[in-house]
Amino acid sequence: MSQTQTITQTQAPNVPQTLVLKNPVQAEEDYRYSHLLPHFSEDRYPPLEPFEHVDPGQRALTHPNPRAFLENATSVVELTPRLGTEVRGINLAELTADARDELALEVARRGLIVFRDQHDFIDRGPDFYKQWGSYFGRLHIHPTSGHPAGYPEVHLVYRDANSTFNFEIAESTTSTFWHSDVSYELQPPGLTTFFLLAQPTTGGDTLFTSQVSTLQKLSPPFVTFLRTLSAVHSGVEQANFSRAGKRGGVVRREPVEHVHPVVRRHPVTGEEALYVNRQFTRRIVGLKKQESENILNFLYDHIDKSGDNQARLKWEPGTVALWDNRITAHSAIVDYGDSKERRHGARITPQAERPIPALEGLKLD
Ligand SMILES: O=C(O)CCC(=O)C(=O)O
Ligand SMILES: [Fe+2]
């Protein structure tokens, strides 16, 4: 039997938390992806160094048809008008460099693209995942999450019959917790790839929301004000949660805090997106505590309840989802606990540019 294990990265206060144990999950011979089960290495990493990100989507802007990579698809369905496209009939793993540039641009435009029937991609394994992700940017190594042994660049989510969310569910009315991945980094992720290796029979969908649409729902004078603001994003609570003895876990890189614009501009599409999230944004710089809390809580509430900006991904075996972490937020849905079925996902997380303020010249301390 494998040891108790559940891995997540939702580690802010008052948020559904999952149990994280240090012990590597024991390989199960009858599980096809047992070589990708989570492992908690004690490796330590130095602080991340800044790097220059060249966005692959930029190159596609000059292609004669920036959507040429979709030409051989058997089906292209828009999940909602502004967010999400579902594609069938394309083998992602075989895309040329030009096609990958076009893919990056299309994900930037649609926020989320879901590719079905990608068993070839998934079965190529972790060396291929790294090669795939490196094309889009420097691969992020998560400071606290589990990864397949020897592949720290592959962030895993995991739950099975031996893990428990019970006390977490008891502490929260919902598992819905909108976030943008590791936004505390100086250069947070851009084009992100995520897929499930094992999934419950039903449930365990993933929610997405467009932070471009979220912003566009706000009144022009309020957006004008938001553009002048920056906010602190922090990885401290995530690290503290992991360090907390009773939940085990590791901290491989010391936590960081960074200040990002509240409204960021996408480097390729030029679109403006709201860039705050409940998980990592802590306070708006220069405002009084109550002002900051009220504005952030209003924005979180707006993100939470705007079903008109959201799409819900129902996983099928072989699905690979790509999202642009700069202009979307997402949340896992933990509604399958009673089934005791395994859910095992892998994320490849290329970092992108330091967030560009929508207001030119905004000072970021
Ligand atoms: O498990 C999911 O559906 C989402 C996981 C997630 O938020 C992530 O890996 O970034
Ligand atoms: Fe996430």
Describe the structure in your own words.
By secondary structure, the chain is an alpha+beta fold. It has helices at residues 56-60, 97-110, 119-123, 126-134, 166-171, 211-216, 220-226, 236-243, 289-305, and strands spanning 6-7, 75-78, 85-88, 112-115, 154-159, 191-198, 206-210, 230-234, 257-261, 263-265, 272-274, 281-284, 310-313, 320-324, 328-332, 343-348, 356-357. The strands form 4 sheets. It has an 8-stranded mixed beta sheet, with helices on one face. The structure holds 2-oxoglutaric acid and fe (ii) ion.
Radius of gyration: 19 Å
What is the CATH topology? Double-stranded beta-helix
Q: CATH H-level name... which superfamily?
A: Clavaminate synthase-like
The CATH architecture classification is 4-Layer Sandwich
Strand fraction: 15-25%
Helical fraction:
10-25%
How do the helices and strands line up, and which of them pair or pack?
Blueprint: E1 6-7, H1 56-60, E2 75-78, E3 85-88, H2 97-110, E4 112-115, H3 119-123, H4 126-134, E5 154-159, H5 166-171, E6 191-198, E7 206-210, H6 211-216, H7 220-226, E8 230-234, H8 236-243, E9 257-261, E10 263-265, E11 272-274, E12 281-284, H9 289-305, E13 310-313, E14 320-324, E15 328-332, E16 343-348, E17 356-357
Parallel strand pairs: 3-4
Antiparallel strand pairs: 1-5, 2-3, 4-14, 5-16, 6-14, 6-16, 7-13, 7-15, 8-9, 8-12, 10-11, 10-17
The structure holds 2-oxoglutaric acid and fe (ii) ion.
